[in-house]
Amino acid sequence: MRNPQLDAAGNLTHLLTLEGLPAEVIVRILDTAVPFVSIAERDVKKVPLLRGRSVFNLFFENSTRTRTTFEIAAKRLSADVINLNIGASSTSKGETLLDTIDNLVAMNADMFVVRHSQSGAPHLIAAHLNRTRRAHVHVVNAGDGRHAHPTQGLLDLFTIRHYKQDFRRLRVAIVGDVLHSRVARSLIHGLTTLGTPEVRAIGPKTLLPTAVRTLGVQVHHDMHAGLQGCDVVVMLRLQSERMRGALLPSAGEYFKHYGLTPEKLALAKPDAIVMHPGPMNRGVEIDSAVADGARSVILPQVTFGIAVRMAVLSLLAGSAG
Amino acid sequence: MTRKADEATPVALPDAEQTLASLADRMRGAVAFDAKFVGIYSGGAWLAERLAQMIPGEHPVGYIDVSFYRDDFGSKGLKPEVKRTALPFDVEGATIVLVDDVLYTGRSVRAAINELFDFGRPARVELAVLVDRGGRELPVEATYTGARLAVARDLSIVLSRLADGRLALAAEGGHA
Amino acid sequence: MKIEIANGRLIDPKHGVDRVATLFVAAGKVAAIGEAPAGWSSKRTIDATGLVVCPGLIDVAARLREPGFEYKATLESEMQAAVAGGVTSLACPPDTDPPLDEPGLVQMLKHRARSLNQAHVFPVGALTVGLKGEELTEMGELAEAGCVAFSQAEAPLADTGVLLRAMQYAATFGHRVWLRPQDPHLGRGGVAHDGEVATRLGLPAIPAAAETIALATIFALVRETGVRVHLCRLSTAEGVAMVRAAKAERLPVTCDVAVHHLHLCDVDIGWFDPQCRLVPPLRATRDRAALRAGIADGTIDLVCSDHTPVDDDAKQLPFGEAEPGATGLELLLPLTLKWAAADGVTLPAALARLTSQPAAMLGIDAGHLAVGHAADVCIFDPEAHWTVEPAVLRSQGKNTPFLGLEVPGRVRATLVAGQVVFES
After folding, report:
1. What is the pTM (predicted TM-score) of this model?
2. Exposed, middle or buried by CB within 10 Å (0-12, 13-18, 19+), for B71?
3. How far apart are CA B105 and CA C43, in angstroms?
4. Which of A109, A29, A317 is closest to B73 using CA atoms?
5. Which of A223, A122, A117, A269 is nearest to A180 (CA)?
6. Is the ipTM of this complex over 0.90?
7. Considering B84, C223, C302, C317, which has the largest number of Cβ atoms within 10 A of its Cβ?
8. Considering Cα of A148, then A149, then A151, then A154, what sign does the dihedral take?
9. Given CB atoms, is A13 within the 8 Å cutoff of chain B?
């Protein structure tokens, strides 16, 4: 089955997931993001690359953060940005998801940035566009259910590469609710594709998928053991619903066993970096001392996130469709 | 590089180092003392560095990558390597000499000027090129020119930097 | 009408017939096999040279979508689909709207089906009122109205106390209880098998234990009461093993598998193909292998289509939101033939899973060709391949994972009660 993200020439035409993307495509995106970082430092933070193009932010699941960074990225490329917050009432008017897409394409949308609570929604849209011969309209997955958040994965990879350079000698720990995390899945795929020798998933059994090892990670239920000698520690957000779903007894117990404190961080390498996709639950998965400490690169992640998204939008817009 | 078998003679290219010397001669005494040299990657960047050494005065060197300002993005996409535009001086009110290796259609220069203006409003912008090969598609002219050439449309003139730092001109392409 | 079906390969699994012979039909029944009866003159001769002539197929699970879901499909279109697929008798589950928990609804359905003069319809009645799992239905009345069995369709019955009493009450009238082995809590919210594919795709998962726990519960209740149970849509390797053990123990259980699960597994979901959103979910390759072995060695008694027409608007949605189910009446025979060819199962053995076995389980006089009995006949070309396309399917449900694929076995004619109801 052909990868729906790549066109016949093997160029990226949609960004749906990092899984199955050739390493050179991932590296190309990271390399393209480098010059975009410096644009943020200029007075005029705009380049005319996407002038005349329309980027539609289709958010079926609310997220001010992600939507805002995509909006900033698109506007810095001089694109026109239209925000559609469809929220939970997407079918309230009886219009199906694909009908909505067809209508927007008729309004000359060039690109859809889609966030949806269901895994596979962006794939459905991309398949529909490919099937109806409108592959010049590109889809960027801004997060679908538990499945993937490829731009987050890419900005995490960019951050790690910025501070650590070579993936092939790293030990990376991902701590928390991997079961429900599209961020974790995307990062794991990216890391394994780029040759990271050791990726560790750390969490209680209730928060790790049954077949998690098949993703290519080592499993640790003991955070002390899991953090030993790590170069990168990625903390995942714990959502409060997990307590209600009989997955965890309390935030307090979670913090005791899986929260990142200075003491636990000391088990990792002395120059290890701490990452978090945000927003943080201070005192639940991460101690403020660590979040605000010298090893935290959480704020640079945000800056890199805009550059990475600019790179993704540019590469897609520049591909022959 | 492929050539048609019946093509009469190879293009006669001037020696890059000699042409650079001619260009520097023309610029010496003509450019402002505090003109900033901004080289367009990659050939223009090497030239800007050399000229800054060869021409007396205070000539800080900046670099510009025009990838994000080109007018052929829609058809050609982003080129694989985009370098970082670095201008370590204030563009506002400055006298700038844009430096490029080959002046052809004029589109790269147009892109460079657009990009420059996103950094500020220069007092004056001049253009120095090593080789002017004609074939303009926009109303752009060089202030300082090293050499003029007439070249077939299907050939590219390329500047390269050799291991010992010397510059060299070559022609690439030809009938397929 | 006197019809002669000439020189076809006559296969009748129940009577062990597999030879080239002519079938003679008169007054709705089989008049003779092989030799014409004395004084015979045919009104019509069907040349079945090179074709297989077998009993009309019996599909124990086909959703006709009436009453209540007429926008998805109607009796007209689905009965057409049935006979186009060579199916002459079918059982439909009670999950209509309203559910088949009232005798009046059952009578209306049977009346509608009869008036169309196509396949015989055997409704399965609701085990509990509204399928809610709380109160028993009037099973005696429903049986008189025409129900052949009672089931909960896919609705869960979590209260084992109610389940036990429902099973016992159905047994009072001599009927089997059809149950889906699905624990309502373990599978809750899940849309895919709990394995590698669901992990990668980030889909909420249903573990195999959801089936095995339910099977264990059902077997325990069967041991206590001796009630006859038919297990619907087995999907796991562990489940097949448990049924094998239960049968060795001589528990009165039968079971079926949906024909799609003999062919597909969770990997076929690919990039979230909603056509593969099925209940039970497509499981791993080892489960598929066990199901194929199970139907071959008789642990699984019969194959059904689990025919579920779904409109495009309800299918073309993100995987977890897509309505589960696939169209199947016209693919039951081809997909069974495909399985049989791949696993080296003979044609008579394969056809038994679609004729004599379902008839035995339903307790009806069908699925065989015997002089004096109803002439429900399927005539098909086992060598003809065809491509599954929406235009070719007569069902209103065009939702199938096999779209665009080539399948073997083309029905040439179908007879119900001695009348030709389909010809191609």
Report:
1. 0.88
2. middle
3. 87
4. A317
5. A117
6. no
7. C302
8. negative
9. no
